Amino acid sequence: MAVAMASCGSISGIYTNLNAIEKLSISSSPCLFRSSFGLDPIQRICIAPKRLGFSESTIIPKASSAAAVEDGSSQDTAVPTPKVIIDLDSDPEATVVEVTFGDRLGALLDTMSALKNLGLNVVKANVYLDQSGKHNKLCITNASTGRKVEDPELLEAIRLTIINNMMEFHPESSSQLAMGEAFGAFQPYQKLDVDITTHIHVYDDGPERSLLCVEAADRPGLIVDLVKIITEINIDVISGEFDTEGLLAKAKFHVSYKNKALIKPLQQVLANSLRYYLRRPTTEESSF
């Protein structure tokens, strides 16, 4: 699946309780990915799904106490690490989304309803349990095209919608999520040092592509921002995976330059550009 990255429009107001999220933008061009990697045609997205009400049969787990959250010794047993994985590689027909939060996550139907509000179809869903917890796995397509979702703005909206749903039904998860600082019932249990948590590596992955691995402190809009930086230096994104693991974000992108793997100097340029963005202080533009 050889696809090239272009760009997309802007997204505003992902949902009402996240009105503090900064506007995400990418310089405009006809589509985001060539072939299966885009919405064809793509329209500007304005997403404002309603918050889901609780039915009488809904059971809302009680949040852990602040002491349990802040105490590092009991944190792992009291509040598991939330994980949201968005995988564009494993299924050629659908975008695979996997959500894990220990053995809790009982609101699968509500999550599916929230995703439908974004104009998506959940073509397959299953739940499986292993030693790491209960995993909700969804295969998602765009309702208007029937194709997998690969637009970064819509992928970011999916991620934030799932995280918002998780914090609504499981308030204790906000102590483990970056978005919990602004919108959660509990503050995150720790602050991440961006200089320590930021790791960027580029590896050779055959003659036609390279593998970019990024690990950084999570923040709203990170998928879109990473894609923007990569494409601004004329590097194409072929496919990828974006994982939210608690306060951390981990991304893997298969990238190429003119259908070839990145040479070492270009790998260095890419790594330096991403490192500069991820480590720079976050300052409101209005403060200048």
Automatic annotation (TrEMBL):
Keyword Membrane annotated: no
SUPFAM superfamilies (alphabetical): ACT-like
A GO molecular-function descriptor: amino acid binding
Gene3D superfamilies tied to this protein: 3.30.70.260
Keywords: Repeat
One GO cellular component, as annotated: chloroplast thylakoid membrane
Annotated signal sequence range: none
PANTHER family: ACT DOMAIN-CONTAINING PROTEIN ACR (PTHR31096:SF44), ACT DOMAIN-CONTAINING PROTEIN ACR4-RELATED (PTHR31096)
Lineage: Eukaryota, Viridiplantae, Streptophyta, Embryophyta, Tracheophyta
Coiled-coil features, chain-numbered ranges: none
Stated role: Binds amino acids.
Species: Anisodus tanguticus
This protein's name: ACT domain-containing protein ACR
